[in-house]
Amino acid sequence: MTDEAFINFIENEYNISRNDDNVFVQFNGNGTTSVTIVESKTEFVVLTSPTKEEAEMLENYNENKRSILWEALVWLFKFMDAAGDVISGCELIQGVSGVDVCGEISKQVIDNLIAVGTRKRFKVIRDIVKKPCPFPPHSQQCNEPPYAYWRTSYQAY
To answer: What is the C-alpha end-to-end distance of the chain, expressed in Å?
Structure first.
């Protein structure tokens, strides 16, 4: 599935538009695409297409056992440096190594949620969304978008 097809699917599935003020699209360096929906100043969700390797791993995923794959804590922050430039970023506090939680969060999302001179701590929960698929359950098609994608939710506390 192409990046554009994934974005269109997410727009239809969640009744959003990439042009909405609270929606951000990011093309990641690993060949995936993320669509972020900012739901409030304390919550947002990132929907990401799986990599080819992840799609292969999902062949063994049992959709009847919807479970949390992992949890993490991150800081989102924004500050002004000595030169007067605004710097924003994300820092992993605690979580599973090997998953780029901060890589999925675009600068636009941080700018939308965090005021200069502040930071917020977010709890991160990531799971896989598997939609009904007309192909055999363990087929490649059922483990790629639009039938399978990552949902990462972030909640400030």
So the answer is: 36
